[in-house]
Amino acid sequence: MSIVLVALPGAPKISEEVIQQDKEINTLLEAYVKEIVSGSEKMEMCEIMRVLAEDEKVRNSLVLLPLGALHSFLEEVYNKLKSNPVAKEENQNTAQDVAAVPQN
Fold it and tell me: Which of 28, 79, 95, 101 could form a disulfide with 35 if both were Cys (CB 3.0 to 4.6 A apart)?
């Protein structure tokens, strides 16, 4: 079985605006996950997803993007926080910064 991939030069490119919005959403979600994890050391990933899904600020930030689409990113942030003791310490110091993140 063969697959032929045709790439046309006139294909649309990803705009810089979309890339910037994606970075802002990732930063915002990372801050929220840090805040949630700082509240409880034994928080599981499914609980984090539930808290984020119920949070109105998160829903407003992700107007057309389903939270499930970001599961792998959120899981990566969660695992980084759980495995890195320095991140846990920073997490406690920066959890208050989440409130300072501007809402669009």
Answer: 95
